Amino acid sequence: MFGLSRRTLVGYLYVAPLMLWLALTIAYPLLSTVVLSLQDIRIIGTEGSFVGLDQYRAIFASDTFWSSAGRSLIWVLGNGLVQTLAAFIAALLLREAFPGVRIARVWIILSWIVPTVVVVIIWRWMLSASGGIVNYALVSLGVAERPIGFFSTSTSAFASVVLINAWRMFPFMTVIMLAGLMRIPEELYESAAVDGANAWQKFWYITLPGLQPVLFVIGLLGTLISFNTFDVIWLLTGGGPAGGTTTLPVLIYDTAFKQYRLSRAAAMSVVTGVLLLVFALTFIRLMSPRTDAQEAAL
Amino acid sequence: MKRSRRASFVLIVGLAALLFIVIVPFYWIFSSSIKIPQEIIARTPTLIPQSFSLQHYDKLMNSSQFPVYLRNSTLVALATMGITLLLCTPAAYALYRMRLPGRQTLFRIILITYAFPGILLLIPLYFMLSSLRLIDTLYALVIVNVTFAAPFAVWLLQAFFQTIPAEIEESAALDGANRLQILLRIIIPLTAPGLASVAIFAFITSWTEYMFSSVLIISEQHRTVPVGLAGIVGQYQVDWGLLLAGASVTTLPVLVLFALVGRYFIAGLTAGAVKS
Question: Which of A123, A211, B51, B163 has CB atoms 3.0–4.6 Å from B36's, for a disulfide?
């Protein structure tokens, strides 16, 4: 039939249910977001009328949207920096051989697999201004004079949420980075040592280039995953104080389900999607590793 | 390579710090959840519990809505697990074991959906599920969770499917087995660890989901654990004992499941990341 063998047809038949599922729950909703964004629906169940690009005009004119976009950018950069650094150090440690290393390489991921709400409870409890252990330690060590309200000012709340999210996410990065490190052949280091290379030179000329494919994956996936963070922020600060931790996902959620402006939130989703697409394409274009790792995958 | 003394020292200190950062927060909630309320809020925190009491667990299980949340979360997670396996096993088989024309494109589509930010789907999925009259049902949560678990599940399976030698399949085909028989009798048993880690990944994805559950579920009796616990966090007077017990009970299934397949899960994760 049409030159397709029976075997090929069976193959497509096996992939079809998954593809259909993804089409119905991702592709179709995406298209319907655009339709929703051209209307003025506020709450579900009410009829909206067509308003053209009004929602977009409102967004482009609003400071809230752009300041949230700015915060998202800082959020992604801050998380990227802290997580990459922490993950790199952790991966270097776990590359070594020591008793229990196999267990450590698996269980390092613990904070990534527990529910976010548990992460939130842990840190609300530890950072509490009244009786939290972190404040107790800071005060008794004389680092702080009185308990610090970590979530009480915009800046400290933002920094706290970045660190807490990095605590949750860096193990995931560690596992991937470790896999990258393990792929660098030991002989490269040995011959560099014979040539008299110091630790810094080994890092710069062997480790970093060797990690490039993995850094590409981490850069792309990590950025998108970080960007998408909602529950950690929402449950820790609700986007406050004074909007200081409102990133785009928080703003979209808040606009849709607290302010009841669904169409406005849909338009924000569309603009956000476009911004992310531009980022992803630029990143792939500029940073794609020269090796044909992608082709080798299949 | 033998380590110098200084290198060993750095390694030990570094590992101790890592262990501290990753484990201590969990120890702190577990150990606090079995203290009596006076000790939980004591001015001087006690690193080793001085009292022992299961009163918070008793309250959680016998006079709160938590058992209802647990039941809902379990049902949703099991259904998510089953559907994810049914969708992804044949798809992964076709993608990784059959020389399917266009499989690269299909594989890329799946990768893109994996990295796709869920927030962009929140509003349209809410509309879609509302027009299907699925708001405030557990079905809505299953649908959403499968969508977010499936792409990564296919990715995880790559490592497990690609290690099977082609000869095994070829000789089975010579013996007259068809594709379905090969999949069921040969591939599935050989990839059992991979399938187990996918099952548990799907379970955990569903178990931890908060954002969609918080808008798709309205009534108390359909709430899942993360939304239920978040409700307690948001109260004016936080009952820390109850909350810490709740967090501990919520973490437990994740720990048990991960202890069973964690090794394979990490193997699949790293193989996927390094290759693609």
Answer: B51
